[in-house]
Automatic annotation (TrEMBL):
UniProt KW Phosphoprotein keyword: no
Organism whose genome encodes this protein: Virgisporangium ochraceum
Pfam families (alphabetical): Amidase
Assembly, per entry: Heterotrimer of A, B and C subunits.
Entry annotation: catalytic residues: K52, S127, S151
Gene3D superfamilies xref list: Amidase signature (AS) domain (3.90.1300.10)
Similarity comment text for this entry: Belongs to the amidase family. GatA subfamily.
BP-aspect Gene Ontology terms: translation
EC number(s) stated in the UniProt entry for this protein: 6.3.5.7
Keyword Magnesium attributed: no
Name of protein: Glutamyl-tRNA(Gln) amidotransferase subunit A
UniProt keyword annotations, A-Z: ATP-binding, Ligase, Nucleotide-binding, Protein biosynthesis
Length: 452
């Protein structure tokens, strides 16, 4: 049914870069056979899932939305993919995204944009716009995203779907095409909080193949989502960040946020204002740290080991072939990030830029720690504005970067955060973000499920 739905609508939505019809039918057949044989099956066995194209899938194209990886078929599965396969999930295909997950609208995909199913003239968010649009268009019931600065939550918010960024290190990065290694976090996208929690439970947990994976038990996120769904939040303290109030969110977004707070208070929650004075520096710190790590990670795309090679005519030196390949293979936003990052890491500038940004990152983590002494979770709008028109923010990078104003702090800190549909502004979806302390992923699911 989902393959039929993709065939019917994806020429208009363009959520998928690759549909793996054969693989999906084979995986579904295996689950049917297991069921017929009376084998025990997990709760998601046979459920289809769409996977963001930055996640490697064995033998299935994985381009990260870039020309430089066009046609590349990875020889192995990411850990989260093998875990989904082991749990009987059926991978439908690979979803569109901003090139190497750099962007907030999916307009920086080298393969053309994805369109928001709510209004096809608008963006579906980014970088994981394909995953969220696939959910909103009923092309898939579950999807995988990756969140470095908001790329699961912001697309969730603007497509009226749920997107959760687990605790950094709570889900394995093994097999993710790296953007910013100290921030990248894979996580679940779904149409309900409980569905997201079910997928979270499948993909999370320690992985010895990822050195930053946390060797701790996965919190009971499914139980927490079900508890939240009972609608009782008595005793839960919600922190509202004072510094976010003046940050220029659209009035319609703020109105939905206030209504959500009122709804949560009716369920028994208490609202406490907290101050996080360094959150205002999160965006500039992120735009030094993420590009710095990207400039290092993307050095591996040299035309020798992977994908595209251009200009290898027998007359050019190796370095020139690398340079011509990278010129042809990377799009404008990726080049901008590599240049910023290379500059910030250069000797003589390191202390002034990268080193300084790392200090700011520590101060932001301390703001979180201080806030979580007083409250259980922090809440905010997920994004300052609803889905915007295609083309309206590509000319000025800063206008695009602003989409992640409220999502980036939790990436710098490493704690979990979720976006849940909260209402509509001018007919377009608005998300509520719930941020929790590191390894307290269950708390955010509980609060998010209560709002649903
Ligand atoms: N929009 C942010 C960026 O462009 C975040 C991307 C992400 O989370 N992958 O870097």
């Amino acid at each position: 049914a989902h393959l039929d739905r993709i065939a019917a609508v994806d020429d208009r939505v363009h959520a998928f870069l690759h549909v793996d019809t054969e693989g999906a039918l084979a995986a579904a057949g295996k689950v049917d056979a297991a069921r017929a044989a009376g084998e025990p099956l997990g709760p998601l066995a046979g459920v289809p899932v769409a996977v963001k194209d930055v996640v490697t899938t064995k033998g299935v194209p994985s381009t990260a939305g870039s020309k430089i990886l066009e046609g590349w078929k990875p020889p192995y599965d990411a850990t989260i993919v093998s875990r989904m396969k082991d749990a009987g999930l059926v991978i439908l295909g690979k979803t569109n995204m901003d090139e190497f997950a750099m962007g907030s609208s999916t307009e920086w995909s080298a393969y053309g944009p994805t369109f928001n199913p709510w209004d096809l003239t608008r963006i579906p968010g980014g970088s994981g716009g394909g995953s969220s649009a696939a959910l909103a268009a009923y092309e898939a019931p579950l999807a995988i995203g990756t969140d470095t600065g908001g790329s699961i939550r912001q697309p969730g918010a603007v497509t009226g779907t749920v997107g959760a960024k687990p605790t950094y290190g709570g889900t394995s990065r093994y097999g993710l095409i790296a953007f910013s290694s100290s921030l990248d976090t894979p996580g679940p996208c779904a149409r309900s909080v409980e569905d997201a929690a079910l997928l979270h439970a499948v993909i999370a947990g320690h992985d010895p193949r990822d050195s930053t994976s946390i060797p701790a038990a996965v919190p009971d996120v499914v139980g927490a989502a079900r508890l939240g769904a009972t609608g009782d939040l008595s005793g839960v303290r919600l922190g509202v960040v004072r510094e976010f109030a003046g940050e220029g969110a659209e009035p319609g977004v703020m109105a939905v946020f206030r209504e959500s707070l009122e709804a949560l208070v009716k369920l028994g929650a208490e609202v406490v204002e907290v101050s996080c004075p360094h959150f205002q520096y999160a965006l500039p710190a992120y735009y030094l740290i993420a590009p710095s790590e990207c400039s290092s990670n993307l050095a591996r795309f040299d035309g020798v080991r992977y994908g595209l090679r251009v200009g290898d005519d027998g007359n050019r030196a190796l370095e020139e072939v690398m340079s011509v390949t990278r010129e042809a293979g990377f799009g404008p936003e990726v080049k901008r990030r590599i240049m910023i990052g290379t500059y910030a890491l250069s000797s003589g500038y390191y202390d002034a830029y990268y080193g300084q940004a790392q200090k700011v990152r520590t101060l932001i983590s301390r703001d979180f720690a201080a806030a979580f002494e007083r409250v259980d979770v922090l809440v905010s709008p997920t994004t300052p504005f609803v889905a915007f028109e295609l083309g309206s923010r590509t000319a000025d990078p800063y206008q695009m970067y602003l989409a992640d104003l409220f999502t980036i702090p939790s990436n710098l800190y490493g704690g979990p955060a979720i976006s849940v549909p909260a209402g509509l502004s001018a007919g377009l979806p608005v998300g509520l973000q719930v941020m929790a302390p590191t390894l307290a992923d269950d708390r955010m699911y509980r609060v998010a499920a209560a709002l649903e």
